[in-house]
Amino acid sequence: MSQIFAKLLNHCIACGSEQLKPWQKKRFSYTERVENTEFQIVRCQQCGTGFLNPPPHTDLLKSIYQYSGHALTSPISLATVLAQEKQFPNSTIDAKRIVSWAQRLNRSGNYQALDIGSGYGFYTQALKLAHYDTVSINPGKYENRVFKAMNGNDPLPVMFEDFNTSNLFGVILMSQVLEHLVEPEHAIAKVANLLANQGVFACAVPHFNALTVKILGTKDNACLWVPEHVNYFTVQGVRKLLTQHDLKIIHIHQITRFRYDALSRRLLGENHRSFILDGIVKYGQIPFNYLANVLRMGIYLNIYAIKNG
Ligand SMILES: [Zn+2]
Was domain 20-307 assigned CATH 3.40.50.150? Predict the structure, then answer.
């Protein structure tokens, strides 16, 4: 077994402050290789961002992502992915909304798009429908097979840190990626360099100040998924992180949605469903989601930033 932990960080991964305090500890819950390892979550006293400290070692993260960023332990077919998506529409809705905003905000005149962490390919598909030329990168080989079946081409099977190009992009999209990256400021600096002037960076991350995190703490929720998620962002933290690299935030949207089987899975186990529980989640979430978003405590943040000329 290679190393589990990287070296301890002495500054906040979002704003750079050295005022860090221990927040909670969480044992890993899923990845076989680090069973029962306890991870320390610290919280920045300046911007409220949380992160694992010490963070997991890059080798550990790479060993997880070579197969999947979706916790897959075996291959999955496009038909299965599309059937799941039909049952609980999720990625298609997000991809359509994010690409439509990015398209509206892109004033660069550049119609090349980079999809970082392209997953099953829903975002690249939406970019292609919006007439962008796409470059997609994603290390997970199970996901990349689905991507190819959906889009007809292969993503580059690399981590973003290993990606090199001389191209500039009018749109750079990063959905559910930044929370996986140790020292995300390196990735943001790279994004800023790859973006054309007046191009758009569109990014989605789980929200550390979400109502669900307040209620559930470190119990399983969209944000506190350890050790895959190493960072837990706040609006203030993301703002600091992007501004340092000349990315001017234009919009931040709060997004809240639960899978209809969220309660069934939590209460009855992974493969059991209750028609009543699913109904409660499907309709009960409407007022909850509205409230969470209005309070700016949504489960996810969608952030749109423009590169200043
Ligand atoms: Zn901070």
Answer: yes
